Amino acid sequence: MHPNFKLNGEAFSSAEDLKIHAKQFVEKGKDDEKTIGKFILEWLDDNEYIIVKTSGSTGIPKEIKLQKIYVFNSAIATITFFDLNENTKALLCLPSEYIAGKMMLVRAMIAGWDLYTTAPEKNPLADTETIFDFSAMVPYQVFHSLADLHKVKKLIVGGGALPSELEQQLQKISTRVFATYGMTETISHIAVRPINGKEKALVFSALPKVNFSLNENNCLQIHAPEISKQNVATNDVVELISPTSFKFLGRIDNVINTGGVKVHPEAVEEKLSIYINQPFFIASEIDEALGERVILIIESKKQLQLEDFSEVFQTLSGYEKPKKIDSVSSFIYTETGKIKRAETLKLIKTK
Prior knowledge:
By secondary structure, the protein is of the alpha/beta class. The longest helix has 14 residues, at about 15-30. The protein has a 13-stranded mixed beta sheet with strand order 2-1-6-5-7-8-9-10-11-15-14-13-12. Strands 18-19-20 form a three-stranded mixed beta sheet. Strands 3-4 form a two-stranded antiparallel ribbon. The chain has eight helices and 20 strands. β18 (about 280-285) and β19 form a beta hairpin. The protein has two domains: about 5-250, Rossmann fold (3-Layer(aba) Sandwich), CATH 3.40.50; about 255-350, ANL, C-terminal domain (GMP Synthetase, Chain A, domain 3, 2-Layer Sandwich), CATH 3.30.300.30.
Protein backbone atom coordinates (compact mmCIF):
# COMPACT_ATOMS: atom_id res chain seq x y z
CA MET A 1 0.00 0.00 0.00
CA HIS A 2 1.33 3.42 -1.00
CA PRO A 3 1.58 5.76 2.03
CA ASN A 4 -0.38 8.50 0.18
CA PHE A 5 -3.43 6.29 -0.45
CA LYS A 6 -6.70 7.81 0.76
CA LEU A 7 -10.17 6.31 0.70
CA ASN A 8 -13.04 8.79 0.72
CA GLY A 9 -10.68 11.43 2.10
CA GLU A 10 -9.30 9.27 4.92
CA ALA A 11 -5.58 8.50 5.13
CA PHE A 12 -4.07 5.39 6.73
CA SER A 13 -0.89 5.05 8.77
CA SER A 14 -0.30 1.45 7.65
CA ALA A 15 -1.80 -1.53 5.86
CA GLU A 16 -3.06 -2.76 9.24
CA ASP A 17 -4.86 0.55 9.73
CA LEU A 18 -6.51 0.12 6.32
CA LYS A 19 -7.55 -3.43 7.23
CA ILE A 20 -9.38 -2.10 10.31
CA HIS A 21 -11.22 0.40 8.13
CA ALA A 22 -12.07 -2.33 5.58
CA LYS A 23 -13.49 -4.57 8.32
CA GLN A 24 -15.77 -1.72 9.38
CA PHE A 25 -17.01 -1.50 5.79
CA VAL A 26 -17.75 -5.23 5.80
CA GLU A 27 -19.57 -5.13 9.14
CA LYS A 28 -21.49 -1.85 8.92
CA GLY A 29 -21.31 -0.59 5.33
CA LYS A 30 -23.85 -0.50 2.50
CA ASP A 31 -23.81 -3.33 -0.04
CA ASP A 32 -21.26 -1.67 -2.32
CA GLU A 33 -19.09 -0.75 0.68
CA LYS A 34 -19.17 -4.35 1.95
CA THR A 35 -17.74 -5.65 -1.34
CA ILE A 36 -15.07 -2.91 -1.31
CA GLY A 37 -14.09 -3.86 2.24
CA LYS A 38 -13.97 -7.58 1.40
CA PHE A 39 -11.72 -7.00 -1.58
CA ILE A 40 -9.31 -4.72 0.30
CA LEU A 41 -8.93 -7.47 2.91
CA GLU A 42 -8.38 -10.03 0.16
CA TRP A 43 -5.74 -7.87 -1.53
CA LEU A 44 -3.86 -7.36 1.75
CA ASP A 45 -3.97 -11.00 2.92
CA ASP A 46 -1.11 -13.52 2.60
CA ASN A 47 -2.49 -15.40 -0.43
CA GLU A 48 -0.65 -15.04 -3.74
CA TYR A 49 -3.90 -14.75 -5.71
CA ILE A 50 -7.33 -13.16 -5.74
CA ILE A 51 -10.59 -14.79 -6.84
CA VAL A 52 -12.64 -12.94 -9.47
CA LYS A 53 -16.06 -13.61 -11.02
CA THR A 54 -16.50 -13.37 -14.80
CA SER A 55 -19.49 -11.29 -15.94
CA GLY A 56 -21.39 -14.14 -17.63
CA SER A 57 -22.32 -12.20 -20.78
CA THR A 58 -21.04 -14.98 -23.09
CA GLY A 59 -21.56 -18.00 -20.86
CA ILE A 60 -22.10 -19.22 -17.34
CA PRO A 61 -20.36 -16.93 -14.80
CA LYS A 62 -17.34 -18.59 -13.22
CA GLU A 63 -14.71 -17.83 -10.63
CA ILE A 64 -11.06 -17.70 -11.63
CA LYS A 65 -7.82 -17.21 -9.68
CA LEU A 66 -5.52 -14.35 -10.68
CA GLN A 67 -1.97 -14.12 -9.34
CA LYS A 68 -1.48 -10.90 -7.37
CA ILE A 69 1.83 -10.19 -9.10
CA TYR A 70 0.00 -10.16 -12.45
CA VAL A 71 -2.75 -7.96 -11.01
CA PHE A 72 -0.05 -5.59 -9.74
CA ASN A 73 1.61 -5.52 -13.19
CA SER A 74 -1.72 -4.77 -14.88
CA ALA A 75 -2.35 -1.88 -12.50
CA ILE A 76 1.13 -0.44 -13.15
CA ALA A 77 0.53 -0.61 -16.93
CA THR A 78 -2.65 1.50 -16.62
CA ILE A 79 -1.05 3.93 -14.18
CA THR A 80 1.88 4.42 -16.55
CA PHE A 81 -0.14 4.63 -19.78
CA PHE A 82 -2.54 7.27 -18.45
CA ASP A 83 0.05 9.07 -16.27
CA LEU A 84 -1.93 8.56 -13.05
CA ASN A 85 0.63 9.07 -10.32
CA GLU A 86 0.29 9.63 -6.57
CA ASN A 87 -2.45 11.99 -5.36
CA THR A 88 -4.57 11.33 -8.47
CA LYS A 89 -8.16 12.05 -7.45
CA ALA A 90 -10.27 9.15 -8.76
CA LEU A 91 -13.84 7.89 -8.55
CA LEU A 92 -14.81 4.24 -8.16
CA CYS A 93 -18.40 3.80 -9.43
CA LEU A 94 -18.28 0.20 -10.71
CA PRO A 95 -19.23 -2.96 -8.76
CA SER A 96 -16.25 -4.29 -6.82
CA GLU A 97 -17.39 -7.89 -7.33
CA TYR A 98 -15.91 -7.75 -10.84
CA ILE A 99 -12.45 -7.13 -12.24
CA ALA A 100 -12.99 -3.53 -13.40
CA GLY A 101 -14.02 -2.36 -9.93
CA LYS A 102 -11.30 -4.39 -8.20
CA MET A 103 -8.63 -2.89 -10.48
CA MET A 104 -9.65 0.66 -9.57
CA LEU A 105 -8.98 -0.24 -5.93
CA VAL A 106 -5.64 -1.92 -6.69
CA ARG A 107 -4.41 1.02 -8.80
CA ALA A 108 -5.41 3.44 -6.05
CA MET A 109 -3.73 1.45 -3.27
CA ILE A 110 -0.40 0.91 -5.04
CA ALA A 111 -0.11 4.35 -6.70
CA GLY A 112 -1.31 6.43 -3.75
CA TRP A 113 -4.50 7.84 -5.22
CA ASP A 114 -7.12 9.89 -3.42
CA LEU A 115 -9.99 7.49 -4.18
CA TYR A 116 -13.66 8.22 -3.64
CA THR A 117 -16.35 5.55 -3.90
CA THR A 118 -20.04 5.63 -4.71
CA ALA A 119 -22.74 3.07 -5.50
CA PRO A 120 -22.63 1.84 -9.13
CA GLU A 121 -25.65 3.88 -10.20
CA LYS A 122 -26.58 5.09 -13.68
CA ASN A 123 -25.27 8.63 -13.02
CA PRO A 124 -22.65 8.41 -10.26
CA LEU A 125 -21.61 12.04 -10.81
CA ALA A 126 -25.05 13.57 -10.20
CA ASP A 127 -24.62 14.40 -6.52
CA THR A 128 -21.04 15.69 -6.47
CA GLU A 129 -19.27 18.86 -7.54
CA THR A 130 -15.83 17.30 -7.10
CA ILE A 131 -13.55 17.29 -10.14
CA PHE A 132 -11.86 13.90 -10.63
CA ASP A 133 -8.67 13.18 -12.55
CA PHE A 134 -9.78 9.67 -13.49
CA SER A 135 -12.70 7.25 -13.45
CA ALA A 136 -14.06 4.15 -15.20
CA MET A 137 -17.64 3.50 -16.34
CA VAL A 138 -19.76 1.19 -18.48
CA PRO A 139 -21.57 2.66 -21.53
CA TYR A 140 -24.90 2.75 -19.68
CA GLN A 141 -23.40 5.06 -17.05
CA VAL A 142 -21.72 7.25 -19.67
CA PHE A 143 -25.06 7.75 -21.46
CA HIS A 144 -26.81 8.85 -18.25
CA SER A 145 -23.86 11.00 -17.10
CA LEU A 146 -23.32 13.10 -20.24
CA ALA A 147 -24.36 16.35 -18.55
CA ASP A 148 -21.90 15.70 -15.69
CA LEU A 149 -18.91 14.15 -17.46
CA HIS A 150 -17.03 17.45 -17.33
CA LYS A 151 -16.34 16.51 -13.69
CA VAL A 152 -13.91 13.82 -14.91
CA LYS A 153 -10.69 14.68 -16.76
CA LYS A 154 -9.87 11.17 -18.06
CA LEU A 155 -12.46 8.41 -18.40
CA ILE A 156 -12.08 4.80 -19.51
CA VAL A 157 -15.17 2.93 -20.73
CA GLY A 158 -15.50 -0.85 -20.80
CA GLY A 159 -17.94 -3.70 -20.35
CA GLY A 160 -19.57 -3.33 -23.77
CA ALA A 161 -19.43 -1.53 -27.10
CA LEU A 162 -20.11 2.20 -27.23
CA PRO A 163 -23.05 2.97 -29.55
CA SER A 164 -22.12 5.25 -32.48
CA GLU A 165 -24.59 7.93 -31.38
CA LEU A 166 -23.01 8.03 -27.93
CA GLU A 167 -19.54 8.33 -29.47
CA GLN A 168 -20.78 11.33 -31.46
CA GLN A 169 -22.09 12.97 -28.30
CA LEU A 170 -18.72 12.45 -26.61
CA GLN A 171 -17.04 14.61 -29.26
CA LYS A 172 -18.64 17.66 -27.65
CA ILE A 173 -17.25 17.22 -24.13
CA SER A 174 -13.91 18.20 -22.60
CA THR A 175 -13.32 14.83 -20.88
CA ARG A 176 -10.71 12.64 -22.57
CA VAL A 177 -12.59 9.37 -23.13
CA PHE A 178 -11.03 6.01 -23.99
CA ALA A 179 -12.80 2.78 -24.96
CA THR A 180 -11.06 -0.25 -23.47
CA TYR A 181 -10.65 -3.85 -24.62
CA GLY A 182 -10.13 -6.65 -22.14
CA MET A 183 -11.72 -9.35 -20.03
CA THR A 184 -11.38 -10.92 -16.61
CA GLU A 185 -8.73 -13.32 -17.92
CA THR A 186 -6.55 -10.39 -19.08
CA ILE A 187 -6.99 -8.66 -15.70
CA SER A 188 -9.07 -5.78 -17.06
CA HIS A 189 -8.04 -3.92 -20.23
CA ILE A 190 -4.96 -4.61 -22.34
CA ALA A 191 -5.78 -2.19 -25.18
CA VAL A 192 -7.41 1.24 -25.47
CA ARG A 193 -8.99 3.38 -28.19
CA PRO A 194 -9.25 7.17 -27.84
CA ILE A 195 -12.86 8.20 -28.44
CA ASN A 196 -12.54 11.97 -28.76
CA GLY A 197 -10.08 14.84 -29.07
CA LYS A 198 -6.99 14.96 -31.26
CA GLU A 199 -6.09 11.36 -30.37
CA LYS A 200 -9.41 9.95 -31.66
CA ALA A 201 -8.88 6.60 -33.41
CA LEU A 202 -10.78 3.67 -34.89
CA VAL A 203 -8.29 1.05 -33.71
CA PHE A 204 -7.30 -0.31 -30.31
CA SER A 205 -3.66 0.13 -29.26
CA ALA A 206 -1.89 -2.17 -26.82
CA LEU A 207 -0.80 -1.19 -23.35
CA PRO A 208 2.93 -1.54 -22.58
CA LYS A 209 4.45 -5.04 -23.01
CA VAL A 210 1.36 -6.42 -24.82
CA ASN A 211 1.42 -7.87 -28.36
CA PHE A 212 -1.20 -9.42 -30.63
CA SER A 213 -1.46 -12.12 -33.29
CA LEU A 214 -4.25 -14.00 -35.10
CA ASN A 215 -5.21 -17.66 -35.08
CA GLU A 216 -6.46 -19.56 -38.13
CA ASN A 217 -9.98 -18.09 -37.67
CA ASN A 218 -8.73 -14.48 -37.52
CA CYS A 219 -9.43 -14.39 -33.79
CA LEU A 220 -7.24 -12.25 -31.57
CA GLN A 221 -4.50 -13.88 -29.51
CA ILE A 222 -2.94 -11.86 -26.71
CA HIS A 223 0.71 -12.14 -25.70
CA ALA A 224 1.20 -10.40 -22.37
CA PRO A 225 3.88 -12.11 -20.21
CA GLU A 226 3.49 -9.47 -17.48
CA ILE A 227 -0.10 -10.59 -16.78
CA SER A 228 -0.28 -14.23 -17.93
CA LYS A 229 2.14 -17.14 -18.36
CA GLN A 230 0.11 -18.46 -21.28
CA ASN A 231 -1.07 -16.56 -24.33
CA VAL A 232 -4.75 -15.64 -24.03
CA ALA A 233 -6.93 -16.95 -26.87
CA THR A 234 -10.13 -15.04 -27.60
CA ASN A 235 -13.24 -15.57 -29.72
CA ASP A 236 -13.01 -12.00 -31.04
CA VAL A 237 -12.56 -11.58 -34.78
CA VAL A 238 -10.31 -8.60 -35.50
CA GLU A 239 -8.45 -6.90 -38.30
CA LEU A 240 -4.84 -6.91 -37.15
CA ILE A 241 -3.27 -3.55 -38.05
CA SER A 242 0.11 -4.25 -36.40
CA PRO A 243 1.50 -6.42 -33.58
CA THR A 244 0.26 -3.75 -31.16
CA SER A 245 -3.02 -2.57 -32.76
CA PHE A 246 -6.26 -4.00 -34.14
CA LYS A 247 -9.78 -3.15 -35.22
CA PHE A 248 -12.53 -5.14 -33.49
CA LEU A 249 -15.03 -6.79 -35.88
CA GLY A 250 -17.11 -9.12 -33.69
CA ARG A 251 -17.25 -12.41 -31.81
CA ILE A 252 -16.76 -15.54 -33.91
CA ASP A 253 -19.52 -17.36 -32.02
CA ASN A 254 -21.94 -14.59 -33.08
CA VAL A 255 -21.04 -14.67 -36.80
CA ILE A 256 -24.05 -15.27 -39.08
CA ASN A 257 -23.49 -17.21 -42.33
CA THR A 258 -26.32 -16.03 -44.56
CA GLY A 259 -26.27 -17.15 -48.18
CA GLY A 260 -22.54 -17.86 -47.89
CA VAL A 261 -21.80 -14.33 -46.67
CA LYS A 262 -20.45 -13.85 -43.14
CA VAL A 263 -22.22 -11.07 -41.23
CA HIS A 264 -20.83 -9.78 -37.91
CA PRO A 265 -23.78 -8.75 -35.70
CA GLU A 266 -21.62 -6.20 -33.85
CA ALA A 267 -20.85 -4.37 -37.11
CA VAL A 268 -24.56 -4.20 -37.98
CA GLU A 269 -25.41 -3.05 -34.45
CA GLU A 270 -22.88 -0.24 -34.72
CA LYS A 271 -24.56 1.05 -37.87
CA LEU A 272 -28.07 0.79 -36.40
CA SER A 273 -27.18 2.30 -33.01
CA ILE A 274 -27.24 5.77 -34.58
CA TYR A 275 -30.97 5.38 -35.28
CA ILE A 276 -32.33 3.00 -32.63
CA ASN A 277 -32.48 4.47 -29.13
CA GLN A 278 -33.77 1.44 -27.22
CA PRO A 279 -31.84 -1.75 -26.32
CA PHE A 280 -31.49 -4.17 -29.25
CA PHE A 281 -29.15 -6.73 -30.77
CA ILE A 282 -28.73 -8.65 -34.01
CA ALA A 283 -29.17 -12.44 -34.05
CA SER A 284 -30.10 -15.16 -36.56
CA GLU A 285 -32.49 -18.01 -37.18
CA ILE A 286 -32.52 -20.95 -39.59
CA ASP A 287 -33.64 -20.16 -43.14
CA GLU A 288 -34.20 -22.85 -45.81
CA ALA A 289 -32.79 -20.77 -48.64
CA LEU A 290 -30.04 -18.77 -46.90
CA GLY A 291 -29.00 -21.27 -44.22
CA GLU A 292 -29.32 -18.49 -41.64
CA ARG A 293 -31.10 -15.17 -41.83
CA VAL A 294 -30.46 -11.98 -39.90
CA ILE A 295 -33.09 -10.92 -37.35
CA LEU A 296 -33.42 -7.91 -35.08
CA ILE A 297 -34.23 -8.42 -31.39
CA ILE A 298 -35.50 -5.27 -29.70
CA GLU A 299 -36.61 -4.45 -26.16
CA SER A 300 -40.18 -3.22 -26.58
CA LYS A 301 -43.57 -3.94 -25.03
CA LYS A 302 -45.23 -3.86 -28.46
CA GLN A 303 -44.44 -6.03 -31.48
CA LEU A 304 -42.64 -3.89 -34.05
CA GLN A 305 -42.70 -4.59 -37.79
CA LEU A 306 -40.06 -4.47 -40.52
CA GLU A 307 -41.78 -1.48 -42.13
CA ASP A 308 -41.20 0.51 -38.93
CA PHE A 309 -37.47 0.42 -39.76
CA SER A 310 -37.55 0.52 -43.58
CA GLU A 311 -35.62 3.81 -43.78
CA VAL A 312 -33.15 2.77 -41.07
CA PHE A 313 -32.35 -0.49 -42.87
CA GLN A 314 -31.36 1.45 -46.01
CA THR A 315 -28.00 2.03 -44.33
CA LEU A 316 -27.29 -1.74 -44.43
CA SER A 317 -26.17 -4.02 -47.23
CA GLY A 318 -28.63 -6.61 -48.55
CA TYR A 319 -27.30 -9.49 -46.46
CA GLU A 320 -27.10 -7.34 -43.32
CA LYS A 321 -30.75 -6.25 -43.43
CA PRO A 322 -32.90 -8.04 -40.82
CA LYS A 323 -35.55 -10.26 -42.36
CA LYS A 324 -37.64 -10.35 -39.18
CA ILE A 325 -38.12 -8.43 -35.92
CA ASP A 326 -38.85 -9.99 -32.53
CA SER A 327 -39.84 -7.80 -29.58
CA VAL A 328 -39.10 -8.71 -25.95
CA SER A 329 -40.64 -6.66 -23.16
CA SER A 330 -37.50 -6.93 -21.02
CA PHE A 331 -34.06 -8.30 -21.92
CA ILE A 332 -32.00 -10.41 -19.53
CA TYR A 333 -28.87 -8.61 -18.34
CA THR A 334 -25.74 -9.51 -16.39
CA GLU A 335 -25.02 -7.71 -13.11
CA THR A 336 -22.68 -5.41 -15.04
CA GLY A 337 -25.36 -4.37 -17.53
CA LYS A 338 -24.46 -6.54 -20.54
CA ILE A 339 -27.25 -8.20 -22.52
CA LYS A 340 -27.35 -11.98 -22.14
CA ARG A 341 -28.10 -12.73 -25.78
CA ALA A 342 -28.58 -16.50 -25.55
CA GLU A 343 -30.90 -16.30 -22.54
CA THR A 344 -32.89 -13.44 -24.09
CA LEU A 345 -33.34 -15.47 -27.28
CA LYS A 346 -34.72 -18.32 -25.17
CA LEU A 347 -37.46 -15.93 -24.01
CA ILE A 348 -38.57 -15.54 -27.62
CA LYS A 349 -38.64 -19.29 -28.20
CA THR A 350 -40.65 -19.77 -25.01
CA LYS A 351 -43.07 -17.02 -26.08
